[in-house]
């Protein structure tokens, strides 16, 4: 990792929303990438020990469910997707609970649909729940409630969910872990593609270069991450897109020396 040169002090950000996607959490089989997720939990626990409030927005229920049920690929039929989400969510939370408890941290599950954020009363309820959990030192783990959602699995790989959650909990920073270092000026598979370290304004060219989703089990892509950054930016919350295959990159981030893209849209 190279020195961060944008002058942004990540270490000063106390309340952090970390979003992790299916491609980071699982193998292509849908089974949990145990070594990686164990390391991620260790790093997040360490960051909490250092004084940060941690909110984890975790995708992966459908992908893990695919692996648990033994399907060969992600289903296209909505009831089967929802069944996978129901199976996978319990497996995912059980794993998180077990791993975080190794570091003496308590976790809580919050499942949300879009109307939780658009309905005044339900938004107030999730606001109260999140802030109460954080005041108790508990780590909220948030996922879309895909097993009952009537939308097309409500959020695109939870990028939008992470931005809405960051707004509700009053986060100082949104960090999106993905399978690339950040936003590039073109497809990162091209040899002359260049990482964009800081974005102050989202342009049409950036949106056009965002590309498509990368993983067979994932439902999002760079475009949804840009959209999440815009939503967070409207609430004055900076967003970072950083590679998630090595969770220790988060240490580099909070040491202000990570390779990443910062969306500072204010």
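Sequence proposed for the structure above (266 residues):
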């Amino acid at each position: 990792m190279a020195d961060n040169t944008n002058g942004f002090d990540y270490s000063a950000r106390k309340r952090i929303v970390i979003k992790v996607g299916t491609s980071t959490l699982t193998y292509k089989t849908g089974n949990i990438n145990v070594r990686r997720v164990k390391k991620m939990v260790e790093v997040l626990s360490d960051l909490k020990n250092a004084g940060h409030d941690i909110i984890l927005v975790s995708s992966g229920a459908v992908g893990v469910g695919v692996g648990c049920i033994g399907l060969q690929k992600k289903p296209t039929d909505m009831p089967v997707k929802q069944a996978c989400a129901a199976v996978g969510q319990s497996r995912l939370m059980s794993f998180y609970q077990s791993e975080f408890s190794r570091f003496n941290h308590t976790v809580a599950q919050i499942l949300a649909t879009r109307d939780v954020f658009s309905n005044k009363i339900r938004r107030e309820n999730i606001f109260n729940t999140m802030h109460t959990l954080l005041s108790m030192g508990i780590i909220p783990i948030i996922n879309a409630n895909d097993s009952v959602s009537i939308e097309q699995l409500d959020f695109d790989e939870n990028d939008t969910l992470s931005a809405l959650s960051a707004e509700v909990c009053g986060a100082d920073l949104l960090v999106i872990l993905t399978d690339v270092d950040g936003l590039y000026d073109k497809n990162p598979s091209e040899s002359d593609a260049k990482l964009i370290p800081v974005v102050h304004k989202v342009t049409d060219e950036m949106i056009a270069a965002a590309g498509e989703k990368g993983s067979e089990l994932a439902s999002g892509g760079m475009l949804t991450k840009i959209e999440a950054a815009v939503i967070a930016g409207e609430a004055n919350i900076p967003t970072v897109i950083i590679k998630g295959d090595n969770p220790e990159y988060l240490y580099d981030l909070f040491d202000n020396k990570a390779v990443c893209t910062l969306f500072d849209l204010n």
